[in-house]
């Protein structure tokens, strides 16, 4: 298989075309088929995705998916109110089922407090992040055509940092925007292109 072929949609044994990253691994394929790119509009759901994207920095998304249930247990189902009330993460550092990085484990606590502060401004985390939805979405033919960031993700990162959030760089925020349906970066020809209903 050439490098160019490895960037184009791949038709699986079930006859469905998927991006290369979602073809061979059952865990990633299930995530792509059922969850990735679908709209997340509730605060708790957006908070979880924001935290998971922060944990993913420098790591593979597959690893995060394998640790997701343990992270949910450690952070009270990513309930912002409960996470904001946590007194520390020392007890989590020895847990091999988690991502044992002190800064990353502290980030949900910091981000939970910032999430509660957004409520005081009369909005919530999901509404705030969706307000950065662009006027158009990419139309990638190959994986090489998928952007790693956008003007909107750069601005979102700046504004979240200004509001006290951490692990919210522009590349991480673009990945978040992809995963929650704010942009549709499904490759043209893949079976999930347009599935979110946001971009038709």
From TrEMBL:
Gene3D superfamilies listed in its UniProt record: Hypothetical protein, domain 2
Species this protein is from: Corynebacterium stercoris
Protein name per UniProt: DNA-3-methyladenine glycosylase I
InterPro entries per record: Adenine_glyco, DNA-3mA_glycosylase, DNA_glycosylase
